[in-house]
From TrEMBL:
<dbReference type="GO" id="GO:0005886">
    <property type="term" value="C:plasma membrane"/>
</dbReference>
<feature type="transmembrane region" description="Helical">
    <location>
        <begin position="84"/>
        <end position="101"/>
    </location>
</feature>
<feature type="domain" description="ComEC/Rec2-related protein">
    <location>
        <begin position="277"/>
        <end position="555"/>
    </location>
</feature>
<feature type="transmembrane region" description="Helical">
    <location>
        <begin position="384"/>
        <end position="401"/>
    </location>
</feature>
<keyword id="KW-1133">Transmembrane helix</keyword>
<feature type="transmembrane region" description="Helical">
    <location>
        <begin position="445"/>
        <end position="465"/>
    </location>
</feature>
<dbReference type="InterPro" id="IPR025405">
    <property type="entry name" value="DUF4131"/>
</dbReference>
<protein>
    <submittedName>
        <fullName>DNA internalization-related competence protein ComEC/Rec2</fullName>
    </submittedName>
</protein>
<feature type="transmembrane region" description="Helical">
    <location>
        <begin position="298"/>
        <end position="324"/>
    </location>
</feature>
<dbReference type="Pfam" id="PF03772">
    <property type="entry name" value="Competence"/>
</dbReference>
<keyword id="KW-0812">Transmembrane</keyword>
<keyword id="KW-0472">Membrane</keyword>
<feature type="transmembrane region" description="Helical">
    <location>
        <begin position="336"/>
        <end position="354"/>
    </location>
</feature>
<keyword id="KW-1003">Cell membrane</keyword>
<dbReference type="InterPro" id="IPR004477">
    <property type="entry name" value="ComEC_N"/>
</dbReference>
<feature type="domain" description="DUF4131">
    <location>
        <begin position="82"/>
        <end position="234"/>
    </location>
</feature>
<feature type="transmembrane region" description="Helical">
    <location>
        <begin position="477"/>
        <end position="498"/>
    </location>
</feature>
């Protein structure tokens, strides 16, 4: 028998020597769990050691959605569409390599990540082949019949319909080569999903981004199968009422009925927010109220997400658990917790259907399904692996959603919250006791959660919405209890009572809570006015934020927080963008030029959509048209302290202006000689590349176009291309 510490070490010495010779720590462990490393932690690079530790804890799955997103980003950045044969050949090669090295502890994780990357690279191509459409490049007029696929939005006056099977009713007319289109029609006597309608319509191309790096309607419309926008130019007639049983129509009818009941009981702006919280319709929310909520850090209250679904499904779970426990017989014969979890799953799915199934709602529902599934299986519920499963599902179903703000904000918040709380074991109220301890713990948790989620989403909110919420913690500490204990419980009870007609009382209670939140948002917004201005960020900001989130999610312990200061430094060095000196709209005549006191129009209307979007995106007002320009019949010549530019209206103006101006802007085709003499933005540039941004560097303009991938399938195919 071996006794004593020295005797045991001497007995194990041969095995330990063998382990050192194998240098097991110098190679990565197998993909999903076996860790054959050296227990003595030999001298290996620190990065390799922490990666090995993370892989040993089966965290490779967490890295997979990030690899897929990276592949999607690579596909999006390509100038031309990849060959399907090349995509298939590379995928086959990766799968064969994965099979060959399946027993290699060092190569398997790397090959698995490459497979995830290439799957992401191929996803958008496959999605486009299945659901994409031709994109209209001109304007089409005519009388058409069409099937109503969905009601996109309805503000009570105008409704946006998604239509398909667009057939011309005029003899000799050709059908536009579109899978679907989105048209605006009067909201009265609105058709239902599945109905066949007819109307005189004007169809036009889907607009591109209004600023470089902004939301790209053409990209997202293509993957939704929408190839044109439009409007009804005459009365809309119902040709055929749908007689088929359609689940989506059934859900839409229920949502419409709930919306009407809300409007009968509540008044704006409370009614609009109640519609947003119950049926996911934000179309009627006043813009001032929306801005106040965003400034107070409460914009997330409007979007049905984890907060709403957790409270509703979790409330149903808790209520059913207490109800079942009230009966001794039921408690003995059923597993009360698992039975209540089934009711929680049902509540989450019903709420998802009523909400319109936005990206944040889908993500939250998937997380809840995994949580309740873990309850049914008797396993741990909230883990980063569950976040990875939810992300992979969303990416597979709708890969283009990774470019939407909802996807980025939703997953950034949940990754940060789970990452912090899975390593936190402290007490938020260590000194207090009794009810006061519970009180401090509740509000301390709300404050900490708000701080974490606000910090995680700040970068994405600043990039997409140019918004910051410096007092967001204050707004959430007061508002979240009202949402949790007044607004959402009243909403749930009112919906349950609607079939019986007894909902007005609880809708009024809900409305009272909403009014208090609106008042709070206005107050917090006034306190935070002028505190912090969102920086102007370029697309590199999103890449840096993506990399920081990937590092934070994959690693555990103190190592995960290394990404935060590194990301901050990189953002300061590479992700900020200067304010523009010139902005040129594509579809309107709006042109804004920087003067000594800010941007001002030299062409176009101050209240146009493009100008309002520019003012919001670059966080500065754009003054009305200035008369400081010299114009004649062929064009205008504008001089500023640092540069000059010419607006050419006819071909006669090119000869002189191309020699004098630092930049020539024209909505006709410019001659090649002009492009050789100075910088030019002409008709072709504006049609195909959209809005142009310019910054004067001292000797020339640094120009950026809103559209740089003109050869991709989501761009209109112009005849000269």
């Amino acid at each position: 028998m071996l006794t004593g510490k020295n005797t045991i070490v001497e007995h194990l010495q041969p095995q330990l020597t063998l382990l050192r010779k194998n240098r097991a720590m110098s190679v990565l462990p197998e993909a999903f769990g076996r860790f054959d490393g050296d227990p003595l932690k030999q001298k290996t690079p620190y990065f390799i050691r922490i990666v090995s530790t993370a892989l040993a804890k089966r965290r490779l799955l967490i890295a997979q959605p990030f690899a897929m997103v990276l592949g999607i980003l690579a596909y999006r950045s390509a100038r031309f569409e990849p060959s399907p044969y090349a995509l298939g050949a590379v995928m086959l090669a990766i799968v064969m390599t994965l099979f060959i090295v399946r027993r290699s502890g060092s190569l398997l994780p790397a090959i698995a990540l490459v497979l995830g990357f290439w799957a992401g690279f191929s996803l958008l191509y496959v999605n486009g082949a299945l659901f994409g459409t031709n994109m209209l490049y001109g304007v089409v007029y005519g009388k058409f019949s069409a099937r109503v696929d969905a009601i996109h939005s309805n503000d009570g006056q105008k409704a946006r319909l998604i239509i398909s099977n667009i057939v011309p009713l005029e003899k000799g007319a050709r059908a536009p080569p579109l899978r679907r289109a989105r048209i605006m029609v009067p909201a009265d006597n609105l058709a239902d999903i599945g109905d066949i309608i007819s109307a005189s319509m004007r169809l036009y191309k889907v607009p591109g981004p209004v600023v470089p790096g902004g939301y790209d309607s053409q990209f997202h419309s293509y993957f939704d199968g929408i190839g044109a926008f439009g409007s009804a130019t005459g009365p809309v007639s119902l040709l055929k009422r749908s007689g088929e049983i359609d689940f989506f129509r059934f859900v839409a009818d229920i949502r419409t009925a709930i919306g009407k009941r809300i409007d009968l009981t509540l008044k704006p702006p409370a009614a609009a927010i109640a519609r947003a919280l119950i049926i996911g319709d934000q179309g009627q929310i006043d813009q001032k109220v929306r801005a106040n909520l965003a400034a107070a850090g409460l914009a997330h209250v409007l979007a049905i997400s984890g907060l709403h679904l957790s409270l509703v499904a979790g409330g149903v779970f808790a209520a059913m658990r207490m109800l079942l426990c009230a009966s001794y017989v039921v408690g003995q014969r059923l597993n009360v917790k698992k039975t209540a979890a089934i009711f929680g799953i049902a509540a989450a799915l019903i709420y998802l259907a009523l909400s319109g199934a936005g990206v944040s709602a889908i993500r939250a529902t998937l997380m809840l399904l995994l949580v309740f599934g873990a309850v049914l299986a008797g396993r741990r519920a909230l883990t980063m692996r569950n976040v990875a499963f939810a992300a992979i599902f969303v990416i597979l179903v709708d890969p283009s959603s990774v470019f939407r703000p909802g996807f980025q904000l939703s997953f950034a918040a949940v990754i940060a919250l789970i990452g912090v709380y899975e390593g936190y074991r402290g007490d938020l109220a260590p000194i207090a006791k009794g009810w006061f301890k519970h009180f401090l713990h509740t509000f301390g948790t709300i404050a900490l959660t708000s701080l974490i989620a606000g910090a995680a989403t700040a970068l994405f909110a600043a990039y997409h919405f140019q918004q910051t919420a410096p007092l967001g913690v204050l707004g959430n500490i007061v508002a979240i209890p009202i949402v949790a204990f007044v607004v959402l419980p009243s909403a749930l009870i009112s919906v349950l009572l609607m079939p019986f007609g007894f909902e007005p009382l609880f809708l009024k209670i809900m409305g009272w809570g909403i009014e208090r939140i609106i008042d709070l948002a206005a107050y917090v917004s006034s306190l935070s006015a002028g505190m912090v201005s969102a920086p102007l960020l370029n697309p590199y900001a999103l890449l840096i934020g993506f990399a920081a989130l990937a590092w934070f999610a994959f690693f555990e312990g103190r190592e995960r927080f290394v990404s935060l200061p590194v990301a901050l430094v990189l953002l300061i060095l590479f992700a900020t963008s200067p304010s523009p000196d010139i902005l040129v709209a594509d579809s309107t005549k709006a042109i804004a030029v920087r003067q000594s006191d800010g941007l001002a129009l030299i062409s176009g209307r101050a209240n146009s959509f493009a100008v309002r979007a520019w003012s919001k995106a670059y966080i500065e007002p754009i003054a009305a048209r200035t008369e400081e320009k010299s114009c004649d019949i062929v064009g205008c010549y504008i001089t500023r302290d640092r540069f000059s530019l010419a607006l050419v209206k006819t071909r006669d103006g090119f000869e002189e202006d191309c020699q004098l101006a630092d930049l020539v802007i024209t909505r006709i085709k410019a001659p090649q000689s002009c492009s050789g003499a100075t910088q030019v933005i002409d008709k072709s540039d504006l049609e195909q590349k959209g809005v142009h941004w310019g910054f004067w560097t001292g000797d020339k303009f640094m120009l950026r176009a809103a559209i740089t991938d003109i050869f991709r399938p989501w761009r209109p195919k112009y005849p000269d291309r």
